[in-house]
Amino acid sequence: MKSFFDWKYRFAYIAGAAFFVAGCAVSPVAPEQEQKEETPPSVVDAPTPEEALTAPSIEDAERDAAAASEEAQLRKQLEDHARFQKLLEDLARYWSLGAEEAQRTQTELSNRIAGAQGGENGNRVRLAYLLSLHPSGLGDQRALLMLETVTKSERASASLRHLASILRAQIQEKQRALQKLDALRDVDRLLLEERMPDSKALPSRTPSRRP
After folding, report:
1. Which residue in 58, 165, 179, 199 is deepest, having the highest Cβ count within 10 Å?
2. Of 197, 189, 147, 140, nearest in space to 167 by CA
3. pTM of the predicted protein model
4. 177-210 exposure pattern, b = at least 16 Cβ within 10 A, e = fewer
């Protein structure tokens, strides 16, 4: 038979073991482990002030690209304007050229157009204007074809296409005026023929013979 002290010691042993097990299940966190859990992990280190100033951002790159594009467009507009002014000066000078100098200039422009890759719209306008200066209109049709090419060219500037359209309209007006002039000449010729006596309708004059 177990004595009271045996049950007491057994109960104390069981209670101590249970307390030990419960203590292990909910053991307090170590100071170092608790500090690690409380401190948020560092994903990316913040840049230093020097790095923040020197590192290019996406906005800066886009801003630089836009500025470069605007500068290129402005440079192209200035170049087109300078070429257009030179073209107007040449057209004004062609009006006073002599026959030989005009023919020599036409040959030079034709060679430039034929040798250039993709053609030169400015020289086409120059040559078309020179051809249209012939008073008889012999070069008008060729000039119209050149000017039509310029008006449809995507490489030509807006000012050049507009000038080609104006010259083309002027040449077409000149052709209509020449046609009216030819018609008036035909009418004058018919009137003159009607007023002149027909030699075949006149009686023939034979010499009189003496008996």
Report:
1. 165
2. 147
3. 0.59
4. eeeeeeeeeeeeeeeeeeeeeeeeeeeeeeeeee
